[in-house]
Amino acid sequence: MFLENQKVVGLVDDDPITVSYGSRLDGYPKGDKQPHLLKQHTDPYHQGSVINGISRIGYMKGGKKALWIDEDFPKVLHEKADNFITQNKEKPFFLFYSLHDIHQPRVANIKFIEKSTMGPRGDVIAQLDWIVGKIVETLEKQNLLENTLLIFTSDNGPILDDGYVDYARELVGKHKPSGEYKGTKYSVFKGGTRVPTIVHFPRKVKPSVSNVLTSQVDLFASLASLVGQKINKKDAIDSENYMNVWLGKSNEGREFLLEEVYTFGLRFNHWKYIKPTNKKVPNWIALKYVDPAFRTESQLYNLLDDKLENENVAKKYPKIVKKMEQEMHRILSEKNNPLKK
């Protein structure tokens, strides 16, 4: 269902909603009990309530008039974004548009079905491309594009199989979603943590390619500085101001950058350290053909010579490993750190 202004769209008083991620509810069919109702079959972890032919995580009852239709996402969400931009065109505005399209379950609008050769995954990528194009069209129509900062990025690296059987692995062909890098979503290797990022701001940014180390966490402080907004000391304590990096005016990024994907990694200049762990790979990750980088020994990679993270040089550079271990310990031991174990 959709939420707008903290309220469920279309909800009626005599049909309240109950959600559970533990005990089963009787409101809707279960994916594991009635698989004939499904548009896509799933792994054992996505066999909860069936809504719109999709078996979800968890269970639900009620809210029948509020249920969404996955195929309508492009129309519904774009209309909201378009209206917001149009209504605020005379004053500065901030729009965060989190695109659902390429996240599992991948269910394309009929307009985009078979627009690719890669099945549902390729089709929803085409759908996403269309949506981004429509946002740009709206900005152009309102004469805002030249003076609008657009940031297009991803929340993690790509993954083919993420719980729903849409044959992404079988239909991917020669395309390599992570490019040359090792790892995917759920992995602390580069393929899981290095994400595409495009900054478009014609009045301020000249076309270029940047290799500066920074993080999406830094957008909070950076954008605050752009608009002259002071930040409370307790807010976004890990965010640092690198607005000049985002605008292509500086090559001075982070010295250290913590990465966390079920284990911890740390970047330092051209070095990448991965903390050793005795964790076993959970079944739900193993089912996705993912290497999360769990190792019992320390891992150190010299990204200057080995950008693909193939050669562990921890034994060759014990001083660098010690420095990285100390810095990671400091970060994880900080007071009020939610990652502290």
What does this structure look like?
The strands form five sheets. Strands 9-10-11-12 form a four-stranded antiparallel sheet, with helices on one face. It has helices at about 75-85, 120-140, 170, 190-195, 220-225, 245, 285, 320-335, and strands at about 5, 5-10, 20, 50, 55, 60, 150-155, 195-200, 255-260, 265-270, 270-275, 300. It has about 350 residues and is α+β, with helices and mostly antiparallel strands. Helices cover about 25% and strands about 10% of the residues. The chain is built from eight helices and twelve strands. The model has no long low-confidence stretch (mean pLDDT about 95). The longest helix is centred in the middle third of the chain and has 23 residues, at about 120-140. The relative contact order is 0.08. The two termini are about 35 Å apart. It is globular and about 65 Å long. Helix 1 runs parallel beside helix 2 (about 120-140). It folds into three domains: about 1-70, no CATH class; about 70-195, no CATH class; about 255-335, Arylsulfatase, C-terminal domain (2-Layer Sandwich), CATH 3.30.1120.10.
